[in-house]
Specification:
Blueprint: H1 5-19, H2 23-37, H3 43-56, H4 60-72, H5 79-94, H6 101-108, H7 114-137
Helix pairs in contact: 2-7, 3-4, 3-5, 3-7, 5-6, 5-7
Length: 140
């Protein structure tokens, strides 16, 4: 089910307003988000990383927002590649970054690089800030 865009916009505005209580946290998230958007990961992969973090951290606002963004990108050219980035993101989270060589190799077998693996770490950090802050403030 797709979220109502006007409701999603109001929920997002509320989340930003709540986060303004700590301008550094809001600014930090916005800067990190901009940096993550400029990585070499393709848009489908970035949105998959974000959705994986949001779902794991139970941030319903982020899930709704990023499902809409992923849907707007159109069908993924390689769905199995997105499943690989989703699995790798979960492995990084579960191991606190200490993924095995086998897990990294499985990720790379889908055309990703070590650079992309580090970019996944950046995405996890960025959206951990967002999802935790949204849950803390009640915006999620």
């Amino acid at each position: 089910m797709t979220a109502d865009p006007s409701d999603l916009s109001a929920r997002t505005a509320r989340a930003v307003a709540l986060l303004k209580e700590s301008p550094q946290t809001l600014d930090g998230f916005l800067k990190l988000s901009e940096m993550f958007e400029s990585t070499t990961l393709d848009a489908h992969s970035r949105e998959t990383v974000i959705l994986t973090v949001a779902a794991r951290n139970q941030c319903h606002l982020c899930v709704d927002m990023h499902e809409a963004k992923l849907g707007a990108l159109g069908p993924a050219p390689e769905p199995e590649r997105l499943d690989a980035v989703r699995r790798f993101t979960l492995q990084v989270l579960a191991s606190s970054g200490a993924v095995s060589e086998e897990e990294l190799a499985a990720f790379q077998a889908h055309g990703y690089t070590r650079r992309n693996a580090l970019e996944v770490v950046l995405g996890i950090g960025t959206y951990t800030v967002s999802t935790f802050a949204n849950r803390f403030t009640g915006a999620a």
